[in-house]
Amino acid sequence: DKEAVWRMFTSDDPDEIYCMGNYHPLTMLTLNIDYHFSDKQPNGKAYPIRFIVVNIILHITSCLLLYLICLQLFNNKIYPIVIALLFGIHTLHVESVTWISERKDVLYTMFYFLSMLLYILYRRKSNVVYYVLSIIVFILSALSKGQAVFLTVSIILVDYLILENYLDWKKHLNKIPFIIVSMV
After folding, report:
1. Is 29 helix (H, G, I), strand (E, B) or coil?
2. What is the CA radius of gyration of the chain?
3. Most exposed among 30, 54, 82, 137, judged by the fewest C-beta atoms under 10 Å?
4. What is the pLDDT of residues 88-137, one digit of tens each?
5. Which of 39, 60, 43, 61 is nearest to 51 (CA)?
6. Chain mean position to CA 68
7. Residue 46: φ, ψ to 5°
8. Euclidean distance between CA atoms 132 and 173, whole angstroms
C-alpha cells in the first residue's frame, strides 16, 4: 500500500523492517512487488522462484549493458564479448543472483551500468537528455545500494578514456550533480 511504500523511502527508525540498518528502499520495493505477485505456500510464505528469476533477469540485463559500455570504450570488437561473458559467468556473482536477499547487488549493478552507458552516450553525442537520464538512473542505483556512489569515480575514468582534452577543468563541471547525489 501507499503507506508502506512511503515508509520504505522515508523511515529513519532503525527497527523499521525496510531499513535494516541500510538505506536501500528501491531494493525493498522490488522485493515487496515480487512477494505481492508470487504464488504463496499454505503457510503464507512466497515460493522463491519469482525472486530468483527476477535476479537472473537483472543480472543478464547487467551483462548486456556492460557489453554495450565496452563497445563504446574499446575499438576491438572481441573485448566487449569477453568482458561481458566473464562478468556474467564469474563465480563472484553466484550469491548475488541466487540469494533473494542479495537483490540489492543485481539491482544497483543494472542501474549503475545503465547510468554509465547513458553518460558515455552523453559524452559521445553531446545530447543533454542522456546526461539527465544518467543522473536519474544513478539516483535509482543509489536507492538500490549505497555502493553506487562509486559511479562518480567511474565516470571520471570514462572521461579519461574518451575525452581528448581531459585536463580541461571545464569538462568536469558536469560531475557536480553526481558528487551531490553521492554525498547525499
Report:
1. helix
2. 18
3. 82
4. 998 777 878 888 888 999 999 999 999 999 999 999 999 999 999 999 99
5. 39
6. 15
7. -80, 145
8. 14
